[in-house]
Amino acid sequence: MPATDILGKIGEKVGSELNSISADITTNTNNIATNASNIATNTTDIATNASNIATNTTDIATNASNIATNTTDIATNVTDIATNASNIATNTSDIATNASNIASNDTDISALQTKTSSLATDGNSAAFSGNVSAQNLTLSGDLTVNGTTTTLNSTTVEIEDNIIEVNLVGSDGSTTGTTGGMQVNRGSGQDKAQVVWDNTADLFSLKKGTADAKLNVGDVDAEKLIVPNGSAILINQVSLGNYSSFETEFLANL
User: Fold this and answer.
1) Any idea where the domains of the chain sit in the sequence?
2) Which residues pair with 193 in a beta bridge?
3) Model pTM?
4) Residues 98-125: pLDDT tens digits?
């Protein structure tokens, strides 16, 4: 019950205040403990945040490096794409060229198949009805030409045989023409020069067209030399003359 005297009132008041102070102390103690826990938690959080900041700094540096690498890779890829586009265009052109070559080869193969039908089954001989052309031709056997004209467009003709036979009319040599020899082309509009054997006259003759041609030699070693007359023989560009001119001048000067 409430106090009625002064000391009772004081005791009541002091007890009430002490009770309130005790409650506040308990509350403050609890708050201090809570604050200490919060401080410890904050300290841990600060350490965690500092670690996270360091990790983030490292990640940022790594990301910056990755971005730089990716930028370089993108530039390289752009160059590669341009190169690939150029290669594709080149390949497209090559494919078109190859397609054209294949078509051409098909034509050549078809022509070759037509030509190979002329080859003998033993592979040792062949017969062609058309023309045959080649870069080079080497024969290990004999060459027989049965045509009427043999044309050589060579600048140099080399023949190992030391005697060349012409005028072989019959295939067995049983017949021959009346003349045979060598003819020299002297150019357009010029008579051809000839060294001809005359079988009827049994002698060689030099011709320029149908006219007799001159022979210029150093030394003549012959068993017999026949000329129409001495005037046809020149010594140092002076006519040798003949016996008639010798006799006339001899008798005139006796």
Assistant:
1) 1-116, 164-214, 225-254
2) 184, 208
3) 0.42
4) 999 998 888 888 777 766 665 655 556 6
